[in-house]
Specification:
CATH topology: Porin
Largest sheet: 16 strands, antiparallel, barrel
Number of helices: 1
Shape: globular
CATH superfamily: Porin
Order of helices and strands: HEEEEEEEEEEEEEEEE
Helix content: under 10%
CATH architecture: Beta Barrel
Number of strands: 16
């Protein structure tokens, strides 16, 4: 598998090199908010900030294939710049091959083919990312595994509304040469998934499923395997999302999420609920969000997110803010 990965990277780079120039587009956002929180009875207030820029480029070659590159730069609340997902690849009649440093939810392959219940009208809210769910067991709060890793993905051409694809992420801590980054905590991961979509008028339905196995680095530990199913139904101003994940590591765990969003004029409102169980301990979370568009990519936001564990540890986050996007 390693040989296939490196050969594909070399071949993709060679093809990309024949393109003299890429059509580049940029997009992104900047967010700033005043937030309050309550963690197990301890209250506090402060400012929150987040911003991200994304650069995309693509070029169609004389042979009909398309090469592309996607670079994300963000701060995620920190002052220092950093690169997030970095992907590039080639697509054609054979499908799409993507390589780079990215998470399992980034590309349309494996887990990335499964609709999740992510999303909040408040930019700092949402139950999917797990950022606010500090009371939950790490790694069980989100339907996707979000750690960025050296990966290769293949997505087959869509046939009769069905798309299938797979992702392989490496454990690149083995035998790295000087000057290369050794990610000694990473593990080999394989994720395979499928998606089916249909639309009629202003109604659109998308369903997907994926199986993922994350190999334990220590042979004494158990692998982490999981199955995810999800669906999104959109009709007019309404969007309803639902997803369920069941996995096994040292013990069984599961997570279910539902999300509803409604848009009318400049207003967007959202509500989400998540219920999970890990080793017999229950978890649940709620998220309410609202935003008002000011035009020109700017909007005002407000939201409230809370979660609670089986041992009565609770976290609540609430705030108001401004987002400018382009």
């Amino acid at each position: 598998m390693r040989g296939l990965l490196f050969s594909t990277i070399i071949a993709t780079g060679a093809i990309a090199g024949s393109a003299l120039a890429l059509d580049v587009e940029t997009n992104g956002y900047a967010r700033f908010a005043l937030q309050g929180n309550n963690i197990a009875g301890n209250e506090g207030t402060g400012f929150a900030k987040d911003w991200e820029f994304e650069f995309k480029g693509k070029e169609t070659l004389d042979n009909g294939m398309t090469v592309f590159v996607d670079l994300e730069v963000d701060a995620q609340g920190n002052d220092d710049l950093r690169t997030d997902d970095v992907t590039f690849g080639v697509s054609g009649g054979f499908g799409t091959v993507t390589v780079g440093i990215f998470n399992l939810g980034k590309v349309k392959a494996g887990q990335g083919l499964v609709p999740t219940a992510a999303g909040s009208a408040y930019g700092f809210g949402g139950l999917e990312a797990g950022d606010n769910q500090r009371g939950w067991d790490n790694g069980k709060t989100s339907l996707h595994h979000y750690s960025d890793r050296p990966s290769i993905a293949y997505t087959a051409p869509k046939i009769s509304g069905v798309t299938v694809g797979a992702i392989y992420s490496t454990d690149d801590g083995e035998g790295q040469q000087v000057g290369l980054t050794a990610e000694n905590t990473r593990i080999n991961t394989i994720s395979v998934g499928a998606q089916y979509g249909l639309s009629a008028g202003d109604a659109k339905v998308t369903v997907g499923a994926a199986y993922t196995n994350m190999e334990a680095q220590n042979p004494a530990n158990n692998d982490d395997s999981s199955m995810i199913i999800g669906a999104t139904v959109g009709m007019g101003a309404f969007t309803i999302k639902a997803a369920y994940k069941n996995g096994e590591h040292d013990a069984d765990y599961d997570l279910a999420q539902v999300n509803a969003m409604y848009k009318t004029g400049p207003w967007t409102v959202s509500a989400a609920f998540a219920q999970g169980d890990n080793e017999g301990q229950d978890y649940q979370g709620y998220d309410l969000g609202a935003s008002y568009s000011l035009g020109g990519g700017a909007k005002l936001m407000a939201g409230y997110t809370t979660d609670e564990t089986g041992n009565n540890d609770s976290v609540a986050l609430y705030g108001v803010g401004l987002q400018v996007g382009f």
